[in-house]
TrEMBL record:
Coiled coil: none annotated. GO terms for biological process: amino acid transport. The lineage of its organism: Bacteria, Pseudomonadati, Pseudomonadota, Betaproteobacteria, Burkholderiales. It comes from the Bacteria. Belongs to the leucine-binding protein family. InterPro entries: Leu-bd, Leu_Ile_Val-bd, Peripla_BP_I. Keywords: Amino-acid transport, Signal, Transport. This is Branched chain amino acid ABC transporter substrate-binding protein. PROSITE patterns: PROKAR_LIPOPROTEIN.
Length: 382
């Protein structure tokens, strides 16, 4: 009996030691969270974003990255916020509870801003690839960064373009009452009036509306030269379609939310070159174009679809987080966070460095128009 107990004890100890040895040899896992709207009206943009993150993660794992003296494995934890602030904070808390090492997201300003406090409280670095509302980086959080220009630059540039290049005198402004839509519309309005335009009509909708007949009829009566919409393509496209149906011939403008490859389809196609002008909160020029084109080619090969909008910025944001970890030689958020602020990274979207607020330095904008179903670049503005 004693021999049996001894033998059993020996087996238990051997198994325990074997288990300990296995754990010691396991590859450390570094978790990167991503949040975007994978359901709802702008799911095509949220999926595009997550694809950018997936592409970066897969390439990093294929390359092999060493942190803290060990080769690590990166794992993507993707969450859906549906573009809703409440769902966004729930997704953020879920990632915090999962002990992610860093977060890329959210897509919308309206979800990024409330989620940023949750990440800040947990000390987890957050880089948004697309949130442009100025408030996002003006809350005093040390964990908050973005890789695109903000609405002050975006809306202001479009406002000046409306009165300058487009010769707009009578201007109508509509926004969807979201943090993004309202923010970019207000900055556009300020710049347009400061540069000589008259706001002939100020209208509001929401991010789920499909019928704009009443506000467009009111706008038509003012005979506008330019109509600016602050919101996303899921609303902006149908609005443009209804403008055409009502015979409104004004130029149509918007920020990066409508500046997508999906806009012509959502608007019913047949867009006339120069009639729609929008701006993407980012942009490459010169030698940087080759890197962006290569990214788009690799993206299509991997996912069999074209880039919608922000995927390259998500891709760069993931790589910025990982580069900071490598420089700090640690994936511990408390240890590598200071390195994020010191970033000087050459990405596919251009050179990335942050100011003291977490905003990208020397952020670019790219102005686009549409010719038929094709998006065409007008200029890169800094």
């Amino acid at each position: 009996m004693k021999r049996s107990l001894f033998a059993l004890s020996a087996v238990v100890i051997a198994v325990a030691l074997a288990g300990c040895g296995k754990k010691a040899d396991e590859t450390p896992v570094v978790k990167i969270g991503h949040v975007g709207p994978k359901s709802g009206a702008i799911a095509h943009l949220g999926i595009d974003n997550e694809n950018g993150a997936r592409m970066a993660i897969d390439e990093l794992n294929a390359k092999g990255v060493t942190i803290g003296g060990k080769k690590v494995k990166f794992e993507l934890l993707g969450e859906d916020d549906a573009g809703d602030p409440k769902q966004g904070t729930a997704a953020a808390q879920k990632l915090v509870d999962a002990k992610v090492n860093g977060v890329v997201g959210h897509l919308n300003s309206g979800t990024s801003i409330p989620a940023s406090k949750i990440y800040s409280d947990a000390g987890i670095p957050q880089i948004s690839p697309s949130a442009t509302n100025p408030t996002f980086t003006r809350q005093g959080f040390k964990t908050t960064f973005r890789v695109v220009a903000d609405d002050v630059h975006l809306g202001g540039t479009l406002g000046r373009y409306a009165t300058g290049e487009l010769k707009g005198k009578q201007i109508a402004v509509i926004d969807d009452r979201t943090a993004y839509g309202q923010g970019v519309a207000e900055e556009f309005l300020k710049a347009a009036t400061a540069s000589g335009g008259t706001i002939a009509s100020r209208q509001f909708t929401n991010d789920k509306e499909k019928d704009f007949s009443s506000i467009l009829t009111a706008i038509k009566a003012t005979k506008p030269d330019v109509i600016f919409f602050g919101g996303m393509d899921a609303v902006g496209g149908p609005m443009l379609r209804q403008m055409k149906q009502l015979g409104i011939e004004a130029k149509y403008m918007g920020g990066d939310g409508i500046c997508t490859g999906e806009l012509p389809n959502l608007a019913g196609g047949g867009l006339v070159k120069g009639n729609v002008v929008c701006a993407e909160a980012g942009g490459v020029e010169g030698e940087q174009k080759a890197g962006m084109e290569d990214f788009k080619k690799r993206y299509k090969e991997k996912f069999n679809i074209d880039v919608k909008l922000y995927a390259p910025y998500v891709y760069d944001a993931v790589n910025v987080l990982v580069e900071a970890m490598v420089r700090a030689d640690s994936a511990d958020p408390a240890k590598y966070l200071p390195e994020v602020g010191k970033t000087n990274y050459k990405g596919v979207t251009g050179q990335i460095a942050f100011d003291e607020k977490g905003d990208i330095k020397n952020g670019a904008l790219t102005l686009f128009t549409f010719d038929g179903d094709k998006r065409e670049q007008i200029a890169v503005v800094r």
